[in-house]
Amino acid sequence: MITVYLGLGSNLATPIEQLNHALQAIAQLDKACDLSCSSFYESLPMGPQDQPNYVNAVACLTWQGEAIELLNALQNIELTQGRVRKAERWGPRTLDIDILLYGEQTINHPRLIVPHYGMYEREFVLYPLAEIAPNLILPSGQPISALLKACAINGLKKLN
């Protein structure tokens, strides 16, 4: 069993419902168990600012399978919930699920890079991740607490 951390985000089609539905779908995956999730956070969009704010969270689960199997399952959940992959980066989306950490592994696959390439600087990843894993040491050897000290909050708000 591998401990996996996922980043979830949505800014279209009732984002809170999108995240809740995604969490339900993840919990039903055959090889997943022990799912937990941070609070939901509102964050400013990356990239184009002419889009709604995002709702983000970080989930933790244990997975009994390969990382690519999990990626395929997560992308299927995204598609089921209306995700349309476009060439535009950081545009609006119904659902985005990223594998942030896959145990202590470093993965460099054409379809999957772990640790997630942007997680070390993104407040909407680090704050929810620290909420559910405050003593986490990342594969880089850095404690999550050190990364938080260097990460501006950029308007991030915890939702009730």
From TrEMBL:
Q: Which residues form the 7,8-dihydro-6-hydroxymethylpterin-pyrophosphokinase domain?
A: 89-100
Q: What is the lineage of its organism?
A: Bacteria, Pseudomonadati, Pseudomonadota, Gammaproteobacteria, Alteromonadales
- Cite the EC number: 2.7.6.3
Q: Which family does the entry's similarity section mention?
A: Belongs to the HPPK family.
List the source organism: Saccharobesus litoralis
Gene this protein is translated from: folK
Q: Annotated pathway, please?
A: Cofactor biosynthesis; tetrahydrofolate biosynthesis; 2-amino-4-hydroxy-6-hydroxymethyl-7,8-dihydropteridine diphosphate from 7,8-dihydroneopterin triphosphate: step 4/4
Spell out the PANTHER family in the cross-references: 2-AMINO-4-HYDROXY-6-HYDROXYMETHYLDIHYDROPTERIDINE PYROPHOSPHOKINASE (PTHR43071)
This chain's protein is named 2-amino-4-hydroxy-6-hydroxymethyldihydropteridine pyrophosphokinase
Protein task: Catalyzes the transfer of pyrophosphate from adenosine triphosphate (ATP) to 6-hydroxymethyl-7,8-dihydropterin, an enzymatic step in folate biosynthesis pathway.
Alphabetic keyword roster: ATP-binding, Folate biosynthesis, Kinase, Nucleotide-binding, Transferase
The top EC class, named as a word, is: transferase
Can you tell me which residues the record assigns to a coiled coil?
none
Provide a Gene Ontology MF annotation, just one: kinase activity
Q: Which GO terms fall under biological process for this protein?
A: folic acid biosynthetic process; tetrahydrofolate biosynthetic process
